[in-house]
Amino acid sequence: MNRTIELVKTIYEIKQLESLDEPQIALAGRSNVGKSSLVNRLAGRKSLAKISSKPGKTRSLNYYRVNPDGFYLVDLPGYGYARCSQSEREKWGKLIEAYMTANPGLKAVVVLLDARLTPQKLDLELTSYLRGLGIPVIPVLTKSDKPKQRERAALQNQWKDILQQPRLPLLFSSKTGMGEDKLWNVLAEYAIN
Ligand code: GTP
Ligand code: MG
Q1: CA 20 to 30 Å from 20, out of 72, 74, 132, 191?
Q2: Where are the transmembrane segments (predicted)?
């Protein structure tokens, strides 16, 4: 299917949140894990979402409409970015929480995990938080071009054990396109149901 992705809305504050009828799938993960790069890869465009080698680039909720499917991919600000002030971090935390809790259109959350790192406390906190809310988690190992091919399957299994999610984490690379087709299939599956 020939899909296009366009940015339709950017939100900075809780009061700007409004309920949408269309299904949404959010992209969450620590700062710098590659959320915005994933949007660009899926869109087939280099600079639709702004990316940076420095963490803390995305500071708003960005709603991307996927056509012709009609669902939204929502790029969230990264968590765990130490350089910003405590009050700013709390503000983002509240915004993300408000988005996730009062949102019947939210079908699943893609949790992006850095394939080069060991699982981090914040990743596990997020996945168990989502489990508590009953929101399905789609685990995705980003930067999977980095580990050696023979290590990748072992990595997937290690992460699966730790996350305790039903899905085997998907190997993905925005750089090479690894896992792109599989991810589209999973997104469509959740967005439609
Ligand atoms: P915040 O907006 O700060 O939360 O970060 P983000 O999760 O949106 O990360 P972003 O997409 O801005 O990417 C962060 C850095 O990782 C950039 O330097 C990207 O080029 C790099 N990167 C992202 N995806 C990949 C990938 O699949 N492979 C490799 N090798 N590098 C990647
Ligand atoms: Mg970003």
Answers
A1: 132
A2: none
